[in-house]
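I'm stuck. Please check this protein.
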Amino acid sequence: MSRKVLIIEDDRKIVNYLTMYCEAENWETLVCRDGLEGWRTFNRENPNFVLLDLMLPGMDGLEICRRIRTVSNVPIIMITARGEEIDRLLGLEVGADDYVVKPFSPREVVARMRVILRRVENNPSLPQNAILPPLQIGPLSIDRASREVYYAGRPVPDLTGKEFDLLATLATHPGMVYTRSQLEEALYQVDSLVGSRAIAAHVSNLRAKIMRTGAPDLIETVHGIGYKLKKE
């Protein structure tokens, strides 16, 4: 069964380019040029990936992203003509996995899709039947095979792919400080347009979601350097 990508974009030329490149990669493409239509199509079709414009008629991309994140962890790349840092960070804060700014290369978008999918699906560097062992740091449990996180037995819900990868990276060496550039390299295996501030947005979201389980703040900011997962 082919994978489905939902393209929510009102620029016909961009839609045509993205459709052509995605179909060349054997994606089934679903296209919506209106935000409200895109949200309805998402719920009806359950796509495997979403390419989402920020400025849309009917419903803007940020609202669509927020709504998707209440029901799904499907990978999302936001696509927009607005290149200001605040717009990029807003997209990440509401749950986007990555961000590209027009004009862009459709080939680059497809490359980013492949990178994100490699991180949310099976790790291709492992044997097909290999199972990553879980990470246990005090009451924090990270199941890397199922990509589920628990604190004191309570599930941490609604983590995006990037948030899970960030936590798993920090948990590999609890107590060790990771620089922002190290974390950015771990999360974005192609050059990212979002800059190191993207890591701060992911950390903020991750902290909030973990603390909803009743956990203390487990991620320590080391000012001027980066972040570390506290040892409990």
Notes: The domain at 3-120 is CATH 3.40.50.2300 (Rossmann fold). Residues 123-131 have pLDDT under 50 and may be disordered. The chain has two domains: 3-120, 135-229.
